[in-house]
Amino acid sequence: MHALRRSLRLRLSWTGVVPLLALAVLALTWGRDLPVFWVVVVAVILAGAVLAAVHHAEVVAHRVGEPYGSLVLAVAVTVIEVALIVTLMVSGGSETETLARDTVFAAVMISTNGIAGLAFLLGSLRHGLAHFNPEGSGAALATVATLATLSLVLPTFTSEPGPQFSPAQLGFAAAASLVLYVLFVFTQTRRHRDFFLPVTSEGRAAEEGDHAPPPSRRAALGSLALLLVALVAVVGLAKVESPAIESGVEAAGFPHAFVGVVIALLVLLPETLAASRAALRGRIQISLNLAYGSAMASIGLTIPTIAVASLWLDGPLLLGLGTTQLVLLLLTAFVSGLTVVPGRATRLQGGIHLVLLAAFLFLAINP
Description:
It is a single chain. With 367 residues, the protein is mainly α. Helix content is 75%, strand content 1%. Helix 6 (134-153) packs antiparallel against helix 7 and helix 6 (134-153) packs antiparallel against helix 11. It has one domain (2-365): NCX, central ion-binding region (A middle domain of Talin 1, Up-down Bundle), CATH 1.20.1420.30.
């Protein structure tokens, strides 16, 4: 009886109710011109569905353990990001030609500077120094830098008119991105799994005994089902909200490219919360797995998907970064490399990365 009551409470929790509520709201609002009140309601439900999706991804992640857990969370968030990009590009016109680039670049900057910087700052404030594994973090950062260069930097310097790839070049970049991502996942979960586990101040693997036991198989399968429901609801509600997002950016006087920043901020907010909680517990490596894993998945999964979608999308696909963006990306890669090499960071490194994030956001509003 006690187990039955506990199971009922879990089903009635907000993380169980919100995905189903979001699906119902999607059915009621799909294809309709919404008044302001319903736009706000859908936005609130959308945010709740994103948080619920990541919660259930964390439950599944806890069941399968690290580093699989961070991988599950990163892939779930990237599915949301890809869906948002594609739905906005399908519904938009020429102004969405750079949406994939703007969103992916924003995700990279928010992940490598925002999530990682916040983790360094919180970890060092709570524990004196933020300790992590330089082998795993360095490998992840190198993969992110390579993916960003292949997909976002090279299009600016090809012979094609404008910052875009030719069809053959786009196909190569998409294939290379997918190969690199799969190779990294294999390295992270198989061959060198220990490189991506939390470490102590002495460099040893952190003990797991003081953490809550993993959920049961039944609970994990329930969360997996609710995760799928939440993802479907998020994709649909994002499509419903897309006109309001674009109108809000335009009304604020921001460049249309800021729509990509809004998408990235939306999908990465839950991961930021998860990484912050891990950092406060001294598990900085988990925070970096989330940060660099999100940046990596954002490029390695988004670019191939967009490349396939471009076969039926109208207009060119502009992926090449502008001059200001190139400088910010280069500086981020250089500073991140210096931060990762020692295997420990102070509040100074955290502050530097957060300032880089602030510079990115400011220049996105005032280019």
